[in-house]
Amino acid sequence: MLLLVAVPMSLSAYDRAQVEADAKLIRLAKEENRIFKNIDWQEEASSAQWYVFYTLQALDVYSTYRGLKYNCVEEANPLLGERPGVLHMVTHKTVFLSPIWALQHEGVWTKQDLAWFNSAGTLVLYNNYKVWNRAHKRCIRR
């Protein structure tokens, strides 16, 4: 009876070493034949970057709305007209930013992409507040 237990154990030990060796060879072959082996994968954008992105978009609408309350301020985006309402601005943002939103969880946008979007959004927001502040000092409120 003891002999029946000893024989399968020794065979499984031999098979295990062979399986591990075969697995190593298979991994090496897969790595060698990988199609995208020369592509540098970049880290996906973090959720904090997405929160900043959407916050900047909301603040852009808010600061534009506040600036347009003065008679000397007009919207610079020709697609929106000179004095768009909040609903028009939100619709515009929704339509033009929907491709970014749709691909948010697909791993398409990298940290660098969102850093660029957020930098551009910060510059737009800075300009809006600068225009709003200048209009507050020099222009008549409607």
Structure report:
The protein is mostly helical and 142 residues long. It has 2 domains: 1-35; 47-138. 68% of the residues lie in helices and 0% in strands. It has 4 helices and no strands. It has helices at residues 2-32, 47-67, 86-102, 111-138. The mean pLDDT is 86.
Itemize the secondary structure elements and their pairings.
Blueprint: H1 2-32, H2 47-67, H3 86-102, H4 111-138
Helix pairs in contact: 2-3, 2-4
List keywords for this structure.
142 residues; mainly alpha; 2 domains
Question: What's this, in brief?
Answer:
68% of the residues lie in helices and 0% in strands.
Order of helices and strands: HHHH
Overall shape: rod-shaped
How would a crystallographer describe the biggest sheet? none
Beta-strand proportion = under 5%
Radius of gyration: 30 Å
User: Mean pLDDT across all residues, rounded?
Assistant: 86
Termini gap: 100 Å
Q: Total number of helical segments?
A: 4
How many domains? 2
Unreliable stretches, pLDDT < 50, 5 or more residues?
Answer: none
Number of strands: 0
Please estimate the helix content. 55-70%
Q: From the helix content, strand content and strand pairing, which structural class follows?
A: mainly alpha
